[in-house]
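TICKET #2291
ISSUE: user wants both folds in one file
ATTACHMENT 1:
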Amino acid sequence: MKSKQWGVSLSGLLVSAAILAVVALLGMKVGPEVAEYYQIVKTVKKIAGGGAETVADVRKAFDNQATIDNIKAITAQDLEISKDSGTLDVSFAYESRVHLFGNVSLLLEFQGSSGG
């Protein structure tokens, strides 16, 4: 009577572990950058809808909120502020370079606005 063995071979286990390690490395390196981007978007939308009327008010409000939220990727001077039909539109764009290993880096381009 023959019985079949089920399982993973050593080579299959090593390949799976290598793939998992690469995905984990990317997640640990890129995750904080993406989290900061979403924090910036949240802050920009909050400021645009918060009743600030002048460019100086918007920049000051962003600087204050960036200090609280520990936003380091952009400053208030990097914001593009315009007023369309009475509503304030605040937008931004920036790049972030993430060092992975050796001489390999990943360039992330982020952009967003209070409009959507």
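ATTACHMENT 2:
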Amino acid sequence: MAEKMMEISVAGMSCNHCKMAVENALKTLDGVIMAEVDLSANKVAVKFDEDKVSYDQLKAAIEDAGYEVLD
């Protein structure tokens, strides 16, 4: 298992509903171990298994939930 920790900047999150939407979208992906949004920093910290899920999949899950990933 290739465990990796990454912070992703996300635009459009402003409330606890946004926080839960992003965290839940990421947690549905196989390989995501932890996802925690910091609303004040507009970031989500994600711990995941690189062998099971890619950055592109993480990004797509956030965008599918209605938020913009800032590369």
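RESOLUTION: both attachments delivered.
EXTRA DETAIL ON ATTACHMENT 2: Helices lie at 16-27, 55-64.
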